Amino acid sequence: MNQLSPEKVPVVQPRARLLRAVDRALAQGDLLIVGGAGFGKRALMRGWCSQQTALDVVRPGSGDPLPDPGWPGVVIAGDMIDGAATMLGAADRRWRLVLIAGQSPAWDLSIPCLNGTLTILDADQLRMDGPEVAALLPSASRSAIAQVLEMTGGWPIAVQALVRHLAGGPLGAAEIEGAFAGLSAAIFDFCENHVLATATPEQRAHLIAICLMTEIDLPLADRLAGEGQGAAALETGLGFGLIRRMPQHGARWQVCHPVLSRHLRQMIARERGPDAQHQLHSRAADYFERTGETEPAIHHAHHAGNGPLVARLVERAGGWRIAVDWRNRQSQRDWLHHCVEDLPETLVEQSPALRLARAMLRFCCGEIRRALRDYEHLATRTEMLGHALALEIAMVGQLMRMLEERPPTDENRRIIEDCLERIPSTDLLGVALMENALTIAAAQRGETEDALESGERARRLYVRLGARTAISVVGLVQGRACADAGMRNMALSHYQASLETFEQHLGFNADLARCARLLIGQEVFAGNDLTTARSCLADALPWIEAQEPQFYAAAYLTSTRLAVLDRGLEAGADIIDTCIRFAQRRGLRRLERLAQICWLEQLCGAEEGVVAARLAAQVGLEALVTDGNDRMLALAATLVLAEIDIVNGDPAAAETRLAAFRQSGLWLGTIHARAHWHVLTSLAAARRDDPERSLLALEEALRCAVPEGLSRLFIARGRDIHPLLREHQRVLQGRGRFANHAEEDFVAEILASVRRERRSHRLAVEGITLTEKEEEIADLLTRGLSNKEISRLIGASDNTVKWHLKNLFRLFNVTSRNDLVTSYQINLKKRTDHNAGLSLTSFRLH
């Protein structure tokens, strides 16, 4: 940096991460290091050479010959050395080649990369990351480190210049910004005289066009960087380290060099005036408006500061419909929301259609209360707004209600059907959306056949629209209807087909692909495929709060059940607490009730019946049993209250409750409901010493559960159901060749899973229960005593001590005395914590 004094000139130090990368690369083949000025390429190789003693290293100059093929060393060369580039990945020599290139090479590297003989360290890998900045600024906070990376883009020379400038001083955000501002002239001078020193006028034009774009893809670069020059512009940006590829977003690129970008924008402002960027965005908005590409037109109109054009484009695009168009990713919906939110309130007041669009965008982006305020403002004025707009407002109201998972009433059903009658037949998207709302309403009411029929009608409409992703969304809704009815196999087939479409067209990490995996995780958990369930739910909870409300319950509740299974009640309580707080914050009363019921089930499974009964009374669960507006919730509440009665030793009350609900008009005769009802009836009869009736009810439960593989229903009640299943297994074995072999295998698998889970839960949560003698020997072992000393202290022979030690090694699955001592101490802590915590499980729910 030319204007800095010598003691302030930053030196890019080689980093341990990159030194290890060089070692790994040269162990398998050649290495190409690609990056612009200031990335520390040559400093890295100097640092590597200084610690290298085992290999000979040569640095040929221009015109120097390369070594003979049989020489066993390393050649470090620049891309200007004659013949060096063509040798990359060659297999007919012993020496390794390290080629240092200033920009992305123009030659084809696909073959050596494919053969695994070439490693590439590009600008992305050469950039500094958070831990490396933290090592240079050990007293800086996380936010300060993030600010350093944001201002410099991880560009090593800028980071190290900033670190030198901050040496010995305070490290707050203001000080970092001030230090960077003080260095900015020198850094920009470095950009001009070193980074851009070799850039041709055409390359500079490409770089300027790129840094004026907020989002970059190949077609946009073609249109704005010059006719047919888009690919060249992106190649130039990649070569100078200004942009990088975003593989998860298809053809999209990202500006990742804020220092160079800031320099180029200042240069544009000096040369073309401060409005140059607005003018470019205005040109782009006009172009996309003429070609009918509404979304990019809205995007560029927003960046051009043209609010009236944004409003006009949103209305022309269908208003609220752009928020529920499932072709959009969540990120696209977010920036559309951002564009509309930035509009002046006067524009929104003038256009009811724009307010309706803002309401739906707010709703889909999670701002439910603000969305409902906008909707209610319009709903009170429907008579003044005309027939067409009143219909649109009614449609939005029903979509909000369905997506929010509020229990649908007969009035909602009537409004949806009325909207379907009034929507013009030419409005295929509107009809499809209302059919989708009808599908969700029927699924939530337990009307499986109606849900599947309306879902099929919506699917056919989306086929006519050519919206593959929307068809797959209908598949998710139909899968939910099947899952609620207990038709697990059909639900999984719907989910799997939808997931394949989402991953193919949107990518593995797309929001809808994640939603499909969450629902698959819920169903495979019901079938006791715990490994797949954990895989599907692995990254769910950090991501879920920003997504569609109808998929929250699946992730939260199944994650709670897995956590209780793996780590005990306290781990599940943390997730349930998060779920309930989230539901209360969003006003999702149904999700809150489902979470309470889920937690009461976990308490019953842990034999915490007294706690469960007290908690059920606190949250007023009895009121749900007679709630005719949500039959599924009434069913779930009845079943969990009956289970609480059974656990607390009152099976007669449980049987009375179950019989009364089944005879009421709220009963849902779904497969899962019948299986669950018969399981609880069997347990209640067993508690009343009526084995014949208990086995008959169990047989009915198995008849419902076996075809759909609903094994968790039995495994979750393993302690009570185990003896009944053993008796039923003996009955099946007595039938010989006349037995139902599918049912026999199903029961055998449940029994094995119950034993396996009981043991793993005891090991992971409660610890291993040892005999008094084993406890005594293990305790003496922790003091470092030998076998002879232990035998003398406990008054037993050496062989007896060895026999007990052998049992301890087997129980803890270890082979050394040190490992046994460590495992015993961990086990002792688990036993103490478990016994102390049993009475404390979890009153945090209320």
What would your notes on this structure say?
Helix 10 packs across helix 11 (230-239) and helix 25 (468-484) packs parallel to helix 27 (511-526). The protein is mainly alpha-helical. A five-stranded parallel beta sheet has the order 2-3-4-1-5. It is flat, with a radius of gyration of 34 Å. The protein starts with 15 loop residues before the first helix and ends in a 9-residue tail after the last helix. The chain contains 44 helices and seven strands. A hairpin with a 7-residue loop joins strand 6 and strand 7. Helices cover 67% and strands 4% of the residues.
Structural class: mainly alpha
* Distance separating the two termini: 62 Å
Count of separate DSSP helical elements = 44
CA-based gyration radius: 34 Å
User: Low-confidence segments, ≥5 residues, pLDDT <50?
Assistant: 1-9, 834-846
* Helix coverage percent: 55-70%
Mean pLDDT: 75
Number of strands: 7
Strand order, main sheet: write it out.
2-3-4-1-5
Write the layout of secondary structure elements.
Elements lengths: L15 H13 L1 E5 L6 H10 L5 E3 L14 E6 L17 E6 L8 H5 L3 E4 L1 H4 L3 H7 L5 H11 L3 H11 L6 H23 L5 H11 L6 H7 L5 H10 L3 E3 L7 E3 L2 H15 L3 H16 L2 H10 L3 H10 L4 H4 L5 H12 L3 H6 L1 H13 L3 H12 L7 H17 L6 H13 L5 H17 L3 H18 L2 H17 L3 H18 L5 H16 L3 H7 L3 H5 L7 H16 L1 H18 L2 H17 L3 H10 L12 H17 L3 H13 L7 H17 L3 H15 L6 H4 L2 H17 L6 H26 L5 H11 L4 H8 L3 H15 L4 H21 L9
Parallel strand pairs: 1-4, 1-5, 2-3, 3-4
Antiparallel strand pairs: 6-7
Helix pairs in contact: 6-8, 7-8, 9-11, 10-11, 13-14, 14-15, 17-19, 19-20, 19-21, 21-22, 21-23, 22-23, 23-24, 23-25, 24-25, 25-26, 25-27, 26-27, 27-28, 30-31, 30-32, 31-32, 32-33, 32-34, 33-34, 34-35, 34-36, 35-36, 36-37, 37-39, 39-40, 40-44, 41-43, 41-44, 42-43
